[in-house]
Amino acid sequence: MIRTFGLIGYGHFGAFLHILATRYLPDATIKIHSRRHAPDGHLFFSLEEAAACDVVVLAVSISAYAQTLERIKPHLSRDCILVDVATVKKYTGDLVRAAAAGRPFLAMHPMFGPESYAKRGGDVSGLRIVITESSLDVKRHRGLLKHLRDIGFSIIEKSADEHDRDLAETLFLTHYIGQVVARGGFERTDIDTVSFGYLMDAVDSVRHDTQLFEDVCRFNPYCRQVIDRFDQSERQVRQLSLERLNSNGGDVE
User: Fold this and answer.
1) Residues 49, 115: one domain?
2) In degrees, to the nearest 5, what angle opens at C-alpha 109 toward C-alphas 130 and 205?
3) Are residues 109 and 56 in the same domain?
């Protein structure tokens, strides 16, 4: 039974995890540590108090993982379950495994965020959670998976390397295109096609996640391959478009 739930970090995604924890762990005491909120003894607590909980979830930026783990290690309880929910898994998983120092830990990545959760009216049925590593004993691990599936989540188990490779070709690619479209100043109009609406929905979902975009690019080694493939195909499409623009046209049949 989880009596206390510690959340380290209270940014966009951390605040969302707070919503989920309140909903699915109603009997647990939630202790949040945030640099932007002073401890109040009610919801926000010192780093030491949040790190001493039964379960401790890191919701900080990927680039802050190493430093944050060093700060919380002295305060983790002996049986604490340390949870990594970062968008990359190989880099952070290695850090969490080392910091756990024999304690149980779980490396996972919820493949959804507050926007998709809100659009579905809080319905989590079918929303995917990827689990890449767990040192929980077999009984607890199976119990966790059953609990998550009973709630409605779809659980996918794969290695950290497989996760990072797939993520580079999906989420990172979406962020990459979204950043290009957003920086180009392209906006919705009153004659949008349905397909353009889908494109802009994707752009809107990532346009403000510059920190995450930069961190994934930095810590996921597969991103470079995706960028190179995208640039190569973009040059091919650009060349084809320029050829058509510069052509004199053809006979009309």
Assistant:
1) yes
2) 115
3) yes
End position of a domain, from candidates 104, 132, 158: 158
The reported pLDDT for the residue numbered 252 is 47
Who's near 58: CB < 8 A, 6+ residues apart?
8, 9, 65, 68, 69, 82, 83, 84, 85, 86, 92, 96
Question: 82 and 41, same structural domain?
Answer: yes
Report the chain's mean pLDDT, rounded to a whole number. 95
Geometric angle at alpha carbon 148, from 75 and 133, rounded to 5°: 55
What pTM was computed for the model?
A: 0.92
- pLDDT above 70 as % of the chain: 98
Q: Residue 232: its pLDDT value, please?
A: 97
Which residue range(s) make up the domain with 192? 169-245
Identify the pLDDT of residue 117.
94
Report the helix count and the strand count for the chain, using DSSP H and E: 11, 7
Residue 247 DSSP symbol: S
Dist CA 13 CA 218 (whole Å): 19
pLDDT in tens, 217-233: 999 999 999 999 999 99
Taken as a whole, the chain contains a residue count of: 253
* Rounded-to-integer distance, Cα 215 and Cα 210, Å: 9
Say whether both 61 and 174 belong to one domain. no
